[in-house]
Amino acid sequence: QVQLVESGGGLVQAGSSLTLSCAASGRTFSDFPMGWFRQAPGKEREFVGWISRFGLSTYYADSVSGRFTISRDNAKNTVYLQMNSLKSEDTAVYYCAAVRSIRTVVSAPMKYDYWGQGTQVTVSS
Question: Which residue of 7, 13, 63, 67 shows the fewest CB atoms closer than 10 Å?
């Protein structure tokens, strides 16, 4: 079993930056590639990005590529989402998730095995 807890969300102005953290406990953190997702009210959960087990590879949705950066520190059992140049359309609940598959990039929410509770990010102008 893996437990995930997101933190760092809040209310920010458009154009600003925010960093989210996801702390893991339970099974060995480095066993799992990690993903970030977001869900706005009334919309489906959307893939944001993915990072491999040791942080050597990342993959991002087109909507955030160039603005968001995923990193991880396995010694701290933590994955991060650095968000820059935030836009109002980035407003959503942000979730981190762990996936058991280690062979390919995984962007489908249904493929992820463990989820955090989410943290709210609100971008206003």
Answer: 13
